[in-house]
Amino acid sequence: MEFLTLARNVGILHRQTQAYITAVSSPMGISFSECILLMNIYGNEGINQEKLSTLLFIDKAATTRSIQSLEKKGVIRRVTGREDKRAKKLFVTGKGREYQAYIFKCLEAWEKVTTEGMDEAVKDQVFKGLQMMAEQSMRTDLSECSEFKEEGHKDAIEPEVE
User: Fold this and answer.
1) Distance CA 49, CA 52 (A)
2) Residue 42 pLDDT
3) Which of 32, 87, 119, 133 could lock 81 by a disulfide, CB 3.0 to 4.6 Å apart?
4) Average pLDDT over residues 29-51
5) What's the rounded Cα separation, in Å, for the pair 51 and 82?
6) Residue 126 in contact with residue 118, Cβ under 8 Å?
7) Distance in angstroms (rounded) separating the CA atoms of residues 140 and 56
8) Per-residue DSSP letters for 97-152?
9) Cα 156 to Cα 145: distance, rounded to the nearest angstrom
10) Given a cut of 80, is residue 37 above it in pLDDT?
């Protein structure tokens, strides 16, 4: 039952964080998804769309739609790679740079709100634990987990870690 509590709390934190990022990014005219992509382009200028999708564990088509929208809004630009003409490298424009300090200030404020009362050691342990859990989940093959077994819990399928 501990995992149910964890799942509930992670779900709440995710939904509240999404609502917060949506609220702070809407004055800039960008969506939650676009903001997440933009935040990750800031630290990875020159990354291509495929690598960005992999980094964030997001569907390539969804990434493409958000990237196209950010480009139309003048926040990022795509540059065709010299060696691979199909790979478009992503760069932040001047307009996108104007948003960076605001976005990071808002993220710092949200971190402060969500970690209030935690000392640095606890915050560090929580962040490292969540990082490990995320990495483990990304290496897990979930294809067999979609089979329901009526016989009961003895036939529950455990995912395999690759």
Assistant:
1) 5
2) 96
3) 87
4) 95
5) 17
6) yes
7) 16
8) HHHHHHHHHHHHHHHHHHTTT--HHHHHHHHHHHHHHHHHHHTEE-GGGG---TT-
9) 8
10) yes
Give the whole-angstrom CA distance, residue 47 versus residue 105.
24
pLDDT digits (tens, 9 = 90+) for 53-98: 999 999 999 999 999 999 999 999 999 877 777 788 999 999 999 9
Rounded to whole angstroms, how far apart are CA atoms 71 and 119?
40
The predicted-structure confidence for 94-117, as pLDDT tens digits, reads as follows 999 999 999 999 999 999 999 999
Rounded Cα gap, residues 151 and 131, in angstroms: 35
Q: Are 103 and 38 in contact (CB under 8 A)?
A: yes
pTM, two decimal places: 0.82
- Cα torsion 115, 118, 121, 122 to 10°: value is -80
Query: How much is the CA Rg of the chain, to the nearest whole Å?
Result: 19
Per-residue pLDDT band for 38 (boundaries 50, 70, 90) equals: very high
Pair 78, 71: CB distance under 8 Å: yes
Report CA 47 to chain centroid distance, whole Å: 15
